């Protein structure tokens, strides 16, 4: 159990003002989103290898926040990636109500789509599955 008490090396340096979110990709991969507090880009990396003493990351998506359709995200609460479609879905939290209210779908070449969940007529449930690092025999 002592071996599981290790930190996960990230593919970037960050400070407490930056946005860093961790998510899962399929069953055995992790994804990390990084938005530096004073830069106009956001990056997403996916692990290519996770072993006891090695974690390798690959850059999945870079979002240029200076493009005309882009938006500066304030309080991201979670994100998911679709490797096949090469897109990421991020959700923003309304600080006053503590509820997710906007979802953005981001992709290559400046692809950007916004969905306001408060105006959605249907019911949309979003959740994130985080697998245990402990293997069950």
Number of structural units classed as domains: 1
- The tally of helices reads 0
- Going across the biggest sheet, name each strand in turn: 1-2-3-4
Distance between the termini: 15 Å
Biggest sheet features: 4 strands, antiparallel
The SSE string, one letter per element, is EEEEEEEE
The averaged pLDDT comes out at 77
Gyration radius, rounded? 16 Å
The secondary structure category is mainly beta
Helix content: under 10%
Low-confidence stretches: none
Fraction in beta strands: over 45%
- Spatial shape: globular
Number of strands: 8
Describe the model.
- The two termini are 15 Å apart.
- The chain has one domain.
- The strands form 2 sheets. Strands 1-2-3-4 form a 4-stranded antiparallel beta sheet, with no helix packed on it. Strands 5-6-7-8 form a 4-stranded antiparallel beta sheet, with no helix packed on it.
- The chain contains no helices and 8 strands.
- The protein is 0% helix and 46% strand.
- It is mainly beta and 137 residues long.
- It is globular.
- The model has no long low-confidence stretch (mean pLDDT 77).
- Strand 3 and strand 4 form a beta hairpin.
Provide keyphrases for this structure.
single chain, 137 residues, mainly beta, four-stranded antiparallel sheet, 46% strand
Please give a quick description of this structure:
The protein is mainly β and 137 residues long. It has one domain (8-117).
Describe the SSE topology.
Layout: E1 19-25, E2 29-35, E3 41-50, E4 55-64, E5 76-82, E6 87-94, E7 99-107, E8 112-116
Antiparallel strand pairs: 1-2, 2-3, 3-4, 5-6, 6-7, 7-8
